[in-house]
Amino acid sequence: xxHDFDLDALKSVKPPEPSQAARETAMRAALDAFxxxxxxxxxxxxxxxxxxxxxxxxxWSTTMTALTKTRLMTGTAIATILVVPLAGYxxxxxxxxxxxxxxxxDTPLMDLGGANRAKDEADADDSRIAAEPxxxxxxxxxxxxxxxxxSEVRVQSPGQTGLAKSAPSTQLRRSGESFSAAGAPVAAxxxxxxxxxxxxxxxxxxxxxxxxxxxxxxxxVSTFSIDVDTASxxxxxxxxxxGRLPDPDSVRVEELIxxxxxxxxxxxxxxxPFGVNVSVSPxxxxxxxKLMHIGIQxxxxxxxxRPAANLVFLIDVSGSMNAPDKxxxxxxxxxxxxxxxxxxxxxxxxTYAGNAGTVLEPTKASERxxxxxxxxxxxxxxxxxxxxxxxxxxxxxxxAKIDGGVNRVLLATDGDFNVGxxxxxxxxxxxxxxxxxxIFLSVFGFGQGNYNDQLMQVLAQNxxxxxxxxxxxxxxxxxxxxxxxxxxxxxxxxVKIQVEFNPATVAEYRLIGYETRALNREDFNNDxxxxxxxxxxxxxxxxxxxxxxxxxxxxxxxxxxxxxxxPAATNAAGTDEYAFLKLRYKLPDGARSTLVxxxxxxxxxxxxxxxxxxxxxxxxAVAAFGQxxxxxxxxANYSWNAIRDLAAKARGEDSYGYRGEFLRLVGLAESLDx
Length: 674
Hints:
The protein is an alpha+beta fold. It folds into 4 domains: 27-97, no CATH class; 114-190, no CATH class; 214-302 and 491-553 and 574-672, Immunoglobulin-like (Sandwich); 307-488, Rossmann fold. 29% of the residues lie in helices and 21% in strands. It has 16 helices and 20 strands. The strands form 5 sheets. It has a 6-stranded mixed sheet, sandwiched between helices. A 5-stranded antiparallel sheet has the order 5-16-18-8-7. The radius of gyration is 36 Å and the shape is globular.
């Protein structure tokens, strides 16, 4: 083939200048043609029907042309100004509309809730489910599935950091469903479950199993030490007020019940310090069982008759107490207590951190300003030599001991003992040696994060004392002011309860709570075995759920080859008794116990829960609340609303608002248990 022109001549021809307008026109035409291809379905990158890259390229081209023509900016400056916002817009679009691999089943997902779910529901009929998958609700935005290798995704929840792997899958979950990249539904059992986020804490609680149902034929006798501690209720309240369900091991049902003051009939004299009140009624949460409710009311000492008090404040000032709800709250609490003392009383102050020291020698409570100055000087710092502090506090208590009076160490701490004797067993032995000196121990817990409730219980139970948890100044007011008599002035010690059930009328029973207070049957008559203590005016409540003989609720079949059950060894008049209640106690300065007995039978029975007094019904509601927080099967079908209704109808006189507060806590627990 030949040509009529000279190719060599073209070497000297200067090519025309490129037309920026022509280039822009060609680029737009190409992009528009792409958008107008046969498949007219909108792509996932844009809600307006125009591809995200089209928008970006047009913006980039137009802006660059305008700026360079006017020579307003150099190339570097232009890139700095434009790339950052455009990249931000791209990232926002990807997060809002874009890409996410489906986590594997063992990968936790954070539920971000409302915004994403509402958007997905609004788009439920949208047919734009293409190869570029949409993220699951709350999933973390990632690169497109094609570019994703198996990678690690860190998901952090309050107090917890977890590490999980995501697979290079193209599955996605949308509006409660799961789809593959092709749009086919994914089986429900392949959808990663949304985990329940539980806050991890350094607080320590003793683990224990709830009391199970016992057959009267096998174990007719139940024995336990009474418990008037209230720490568990305050811990539960704090958890609920902070928006989380409490650790089940922090829930001791008997402490929830006994947190509230009840007005059971009073005994007549201090020499017989208890009134025992028993009732039997239908069980609100099980129509086939009954509740045997035991209410013990302590003698209330007239203020003018109360004994003089020798109190040693043992205060933890270690570094772990450096928090607003620890040492500052503690100091305010003890200032309140000082208002309840008079000229007969003596106060000493011992602190411990790296080592123990005496801040205030025994001082008459009338020297109020001197005591307050000593409290105000306390500052946190150092490690926690708790054992040394206990030794020093008991030494001062012995030196200032008041014969015939109350001698008590008041330990205030978060329980973080880490210097000297620090194991629970070592501290228990130390306390046991000191209680024989007639010096009682009360324990007040503060703070959270490293709160050692388990140690608080060990110290209080073995030191002839009680344990309380103070989370607010209002709780300090209740414990140290309103209930100062029951907190400081004991009327009995080593109080034990034993119940023998009649196999002729009761097939099974279950003690609600008191798991950490169980005693052996032979411990009941052994005066060397330590038990709980009761202060002036304090009440104690215990509740058994019993299953009558012949009830469909009986859970244990009789033995095929066992010996035939024998009736209870009672006289003819007592064969219809449900149980025989025995109570032992010692006076505060006594060494020998006194026995009190009460038969329980139809005479104490009520036909309905409504026939019971307000105090009894309210305590039953609290018992149901505690069991539900521990996830007990017995109340699984008893609703939070039923608990609140029972408590509300039994609220009665509520001078300090404790029962009203309880009703609010039930509502919080219900909202958190969904």
